[in-house]
Write a structure and sequence with these properties.
single chain, mainly alpha, Serine Threonine Protein Phosphatase 5, Tetratricopeptide repeat, 22 helices
Amino acid sequence: MNLDLEDSGPLDPELKQRTSLMWVAAEGLDDVAKIMLDGAPALECADAEGRTALMHAAWAGHVTLVQQLCDAGADLNKVDEDGRSAIMLAAWAGSLEVLTYLADAGADLTICDDEEHDALMLAAYRGHVREVQALLAVGYDVHRRGEDAETALIIAAKRGHANIATLLLQAKADINAADDRQRTALIWAVKRDHRNTAQLLMEKDADLNHYDDDHMTALSYAIQVGDRDLAKALISHGADPTIRDDDGHTPLSQAARLGQNRVVKILLEKGCPVDDPDDDGWTALMFAAANGHDAVLSSLLSHDANPNQADDEGRTALMIAASHNRKGSVLLLLDCGANPKAQDQRGRTAADIAVEHDAEDLIDLLRPKETEEE
């Protein structure tokens, strides 16, 4: 591109309204910039994104050009359309030299963008370890909260940046700070299945039993994402396996519903009550029967789950299995003492329910055998 060194005003709108100086800054053309700066250009002229030449140089990591622009009087703290200053753009891009220079030059460390994120949060999000170290060294506040009340530690945990979480904890970040959904760094690490980060937070004594607005704990989310090893680690570190979610589901019921037999076995070994019902009276056995998780069903029955316990509508696990045409589950339940003559609140037996749901393979299994008259 042919750059007019005398022109520091806006260019064609199709080029994002960038001046020649902005293009030079973005490309890191130090010698050209020196000539242009001698001509006293409009340093604070901004493009369509609200970015000045200094911001472009900072974003691209051109520290010499950043120095030249600052020496010429560029505003260190001017922000773009997203509310981000030059030091914030350097933090996002991972430009350590630029970031360090701007901090030493007096850049405002308290500026936050339109989402209330500061440079430390941006560097934490991107996983820039050296930049996070540098920002902590110049005094960035690890307790500051951004949009949704997130801290830098929560942001790092959501992204699975265990090394950055370590740095933030060393800087005394609050390990149990929660966002506006009451989710801590540990809950987010588990929810996103970032095992290394979750393990770090457990070892640093994060609150294992904190629950969010859905009354879900880290253990609940480990079960939800199907991470048996993480669930086991949480329980080993002291997570309470009896905390219920908003619908009254225990971790055992959650694992049974999802067919996670290995997690079910771990929970049973830890003494979780096998027949605890949820708000609708459903037990773990009923969830396993409804979904045809026969291995889970066997595990629960081997730990003395009651096959004849009824929900709030009088339905047993056998009736529920019949309504979903789960032949394997029906056979297991019958073998373990399920009563085919039991009736729900509408007077229906499991056989009646099988008829209603066209489960023809189950009708003869469930209908009591009549004695032939001589």
